[in-house]
Amino acid sequence: MHEPLLVVRNLAVVIGGRHILHGVDLDVAPGGVTALLGRNGAGKTTTVRAVLGLVPRTGSVRFAGEETVRLATHTLVRRGIGYAPEDRGVFAGLTVAENLRLAERPGAGGPAYPLVHELFPELKFRAGQLAGTLSGGQQQMVAIGRTLLNGNRLVIADEPTKGLAPKVVTEVARVLERAAQAVPVLLVEQNLALVRRLAGHCVVLADGRTAHAGPAAELLADPEASRRLLGVGRHRPDSAAPAGETAAAGEHTSGSRGSTVPARSPDGPPRAVRAAGEAAG
Ligand SMILES: Nc1ncnc2c1ncn2[C@@H]1O[C@H](COP(=O)(O)OP(=O)(O)OP(=O)(O)O)[C@@H](O)[C@H]1O
Hints:
By secondary structure, the protein is of the alpha/beta class.
């Protein structure tokens, strides 16, 4: 791999006295898709939120050669990181066009609407539609489209296919594939068929630590390692199958195997901070 775009070392997060991350190391390649994998509760979303400064963190986060671990989220975002959060962070009461307009940042050479509309023609047709009336896949397009508006140098997408029907997963996969040709993507994903199709490298977390890093194809071709690290019961080497088809067969990372990390507190903050989703667009 060339010099990584994002280099995370010994990232630790403590929330309410609970150690959520204990030392995550993560390199994001300067091109294509890097996948962040792990069972439920392994710490993937917390890692992404820590990189973005949305939770208190220690360690080192170097982005494009600059140490950013002490930077506020808005400053970091202006350095060129787009974020599509797990809950999509779309404003239901605003139109598609208004959602996109909110994400515009001045001084980035103007918003890249031609790119966004080329990748997602539907967002152009549906410009006047309230985002709350869009399907899950269409809302995901708004979330990803927003990250591509401002010439960002890195896009972080947190489980963009979660809860989507297999056909829509295939659509989102195509979109991510094309987006990754324009900008490097850090993809949090449990759909391993999608990972096999899109990702060059992967990093696997377990219990708040990095458990593995290397070429995604290598890990997914190793049934024993896939089972141990991802809890995949069986391995289907049908890499040529469209992501949606294999996704329909249920090739997903399994749940946690009794993590020592305590469960999220019911009164904890919401997973995605809406304002940050907006700011990070
Ligand atoms: N604000 C919080 N307060 C307390 N515990 C939290 C908080 N956020 C996350 N956790 C806990 O930290 C652990 C890691 O959560 P995280 O959401 O990062 O995992 P994940 O790998 O993204 O999981 P999933 O795949 O299920 O989305 C979990 O045990 C979770 O309950």
